[in-house]
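#struct-help
A.M.: can someone run this one for me? Single chain, 303 residues.
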Amino acid sequence: MNAVVALESTVIAHGLPAPHNLDAAYRIEAAIRAEGARPCTIAILKGQVRLGLEPHELRYLATAEGVRKVSLRDLPVAVAQGCDGATTVAATLHLAWRAGISVMATGGIGGVHRSADGRPSMDISADLEALARIPAVVVCSGPKTILDLKATREQLETRGITTVGYRTHEMPAFYTATSGLPVDARCDTPEAVVALYQARLRLGLPGALVVTVPPPDRVAIPTAVLMPALEEALQEAERQGIAAEALTPFLLARLRERLGSRVLQANLALLEQNAIVAARIARALAMAALPLSPPASCAAITN
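D.P.: on it. Structure tokens below:
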């Protein structure tokens, strides 16, 4: 049985503060191994694609300065210029599928960004393009809370990406279990997820099966607490003229300031939970002996 779970590395280099980033990386990989699957954290180190990182390489990503955030457009630049890069959901999904890995775990997916002035945003994450193109299983806690959730849900539907609620009928929104938006189907077991995935492949559909898992009850932040803090942050961003690429880190920083350790606790807990669910799905998929057709140029996993 070859049950492997791909993991992005942006959360290590850019998503979590030290020392929580390294602790999270170790805990996520350990949780996957405890479920009988193999973790495969993906990154670019000195221009080389790395499929599976050693402990010292995880430490390097968590502590080094100048690690580039690498999405799809950045992959050839990072490789050609010999950069260190932490891969986003989109880049990780692309590299994982090329290596024959069909299950990935992350925290939240990207989507349509909110604009500070409330106008429609043209800032759309490359994650949606990758999800529309690559036929993998992506386990997450829904779109990140700071996004335009309704517009992101509509984009998922338009691009033919099936969204599953894992033991829920409602799409979670990262820190919170509720978004007010429906999923396309509910699955209560890994085997049910695999059945849906098999059906997509048999039908020849491109794109991912996105499995959304609510954050654990003990750390989930109620919408009534989360959304007022987000609205305040958006209003502050408009007053300061903060927009485009600077808006997302600004909003995240303001949420951490207003809600304190609750944001970090929710982030760490949902990452570990998603990894566990992904490992169980990967095992069920391996047991189903589903024939896949990854490219012939599959790279070896190092750990």
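A.M.: thanks! The first strand starts at residue 4 and ends at 7.
D.P.: also worth noting: The two ends are 16 Å apart (CA to CA).
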